[in-house]
Amino acid sequence: MSNIKDKIIAINNGLPMGARLVAVSKYNPASAIQEAYEAGQRIFGESHVQELVEKQQVLPSDIKWHFIGHLQTNKVKYIAPFISLIHAVDSMKLLNEINRQGEKCGRIIPCLLQLHVAQEETKYGFTFEECQEVLSGNEWKGLTHISLHGLMCMASNTDNQNQVRAEFKKVHQFFQEMQQAIGEEAPDFKQLSMGMSGDFPIALEEGSTLIRVGSLIFGERIYS
Ligand SMILES: *Cc1c(COP(=O)(O)O)cnc(C)c1O
């Protein structure tokens, strides 16, 4: 068995109930995705629109493509017809554009709101306060072609596991609070996307339902 297949099977077998693996295939060729697919993997994450569109056209149609990177509003239209989940919605402007494109192609597009929790300044996302404001407001309720499925975050890029765990814990607690607060108005608000190659075991312990794992499966990327 190939290395990619072994990794896919091992990670999936180790997942707790209710958690799923997003195999992050960015910068990897379609052939690598095909190998993972043959091991049973169906959810793949990409973070560049053009690369995703090219792969989507040549790979099996039952793949569920997740967009995990920063998405520019002017590129939403290219992925709206087929995307299964957009992980990193970081502004109302983007959410409105996803809704507009969803309407155009007759779809309701599942979205996660991205929280900014890491210490690095370059990372995108809402602060807890901003996210709470969005969710307690009415604007999203009028968007009939998006569906809020939960939250996403990236922990700080640090070797300090205590800090990473504390960040995931805080996000999980906030996630549960928001779930309570919006309740029946967002029945699909159930997903918490957190954890990557370096920290997904901690994320799973802290309540992640979607781990986004790339380099551990496909090997180290040259660019990223
Ligand atoms: C690239 C990427 C990942 C995967 O990172 P690895 O460390 O290779 O597992 C996860 N999430 C996002 C948002 C990414 O851009």
Give your account of this protein's structure.
The protein has 224 residues and is α/β, with parallel strands linked by helices. The protein contains nine helices and eight strands. The protein has an eight-stranded parallel β-sheet. It is globular. The two termini are 27 Å apart. The mean pLDDT is 95. Bound molecules: pyridoxal-5'-phosphate.
Strand percentage lies at 15-25%
Largest pleated sheet: 8 strands, parallel
User: How large is the radius of gyration?
Assistant: 17 Å
Query: H/E element string?
Result: HEHEHEHEHEHEHEHEH
Arrangement of strands in the largest sheet = 7-6-5-4-3-2-1-8
Mean pLDDT score, rounded?
95
- Count helical runs: 9
Unique bound compounds: pyridoxal-5'-phosphate
Distance between the termini: 27 Å
Low-confidence stretches: none
Q: Name the structural class.
A: alpha/beta
Shape, please?
globular
Q: Count the beta strands.
A: 8
Helix content: 25-40%
Q: Could you outline the blueprint of secondary structure elements for this entry?
A:
Elements: H1 3-13, E1 20-24, H2 30-38, E2 43-46, H3 49-58, E3 64-67, H4 76-79, E4 85-89, H5 92-104, E5 109-115, H6 128-136, E6 146-153, H7 161-182, E7 191-193, H8 200-205, E8 210-213, H9 215-218
Parallel strand pairs: 1-2, 1-8, 2-3, 3-4, 4-5, 5-6, 6-7
Helix pairs in contact: 6-7
Bound molecules: pyridoxal-5'-phosphate (PLP).
Pyridoxal-5'-phosphate (PLP) binds next to strand 8 and helix 9.
